[in-house]
Specification:
Order of helices and strands: HEEEHEHE
Oligomer: single chain
Number of helices: 3
Largest sheet: 5 strands, mixed
CATH class of one domain: Alpha Beta
Radius of gyration: 36 Å
Distance between the termini: 98 Å
Length: 144
């Protein structure tokens, strides 16, 4: 047995492997717990159409939707906002043309989305599959 003491100070040894292990665990924990979310607002640019001027053609049914949800069909007000009432009014406005009639929806820019969907649903119930939407020219005259 060798009980002799060494002469001089003993040099400390730093073991870095446990330190690296702990840092890797911390990095993995931070990567898994961090949420990467985008903070951006939804920006919608509504399209503008350069459509022809409306011409009175037979077989067209003009449906207008006001900002407060009232309906008119061929400039005649519809009583109530019920889909069945609107479908009956569309059916009578289409007349004998029936499935060949074109429904033109002219909705106010501030009209509720549900009101426009109601017109689409009423047209489907009335058996009028041809549907289009009226637009207006842009304020700058269409130069884009």
């Amino acid at each position: 047995m060798n009980f002799r003491r060494r002469h001089g100070p003993e040099e400390p040894e730093i073991n870095l492997i446990p330190f690296i292990d702990v840092l890797l665990v911390v990095i993995i924990f931070l990567m898994l717990s961090t949420t990467y979310s985008r903070y951006s607002e939804l920006q919608i640019n509504l399209p503008v159409a350069a459509a022809e001027q409306l011409k009175d053609r037979p077989g067209e049914v003009l449906v207008s939707v006001s900002a407060d949800g009232r309906y008119t069909i061929n400039r005649q007000p519809v009583d109530g906002r019920n889909i069945d009432t609107l479908a009956a009014a569309l059916r009578s406005a289409a007349g004998a043309d029936g499935a060949q009639a074109i429904v033109i929806v002219s909705a106010d820019a501030l009209a509720a989305h549900q009101s426009v969907i109601g017109v689409m649903d009423a047209a489907r119930r009335a058996g009028l599959p041809r549907l289009t939407f009226a637009t207006q020219l842009p304020a700058d005259g269409g130069a884009r």
